[in-house]
Amino acid sequence: MSMSRSVEWAMRGAIRGTFVAALGVVLIMLAAPAAPVCAQTAGTQGTGSETETAAPRRTLIRFLTDNDYPPFNYVEEDGTLTGFNIDVARAVCLQLAVTCDIQTRAWDDLLPALGRGDADAVIASIAISPASLKDADFTDRYYSTPARFAALKSAPEREVTPEGLESRKIGVVTDSAHEAYLQAFFRDSVVVGYGDEEALRQALVSGEVELVFGDGIGLMFWLNGTGAAGCCEFRGGPFQDPRYFGDGVGIAVHKGDMELKAQINQALADLRQSGRLEELYLRHFPLRIY
Question: What is the pLDDT averaged over residues 129-151?
Answer without folding.
Answer: 95
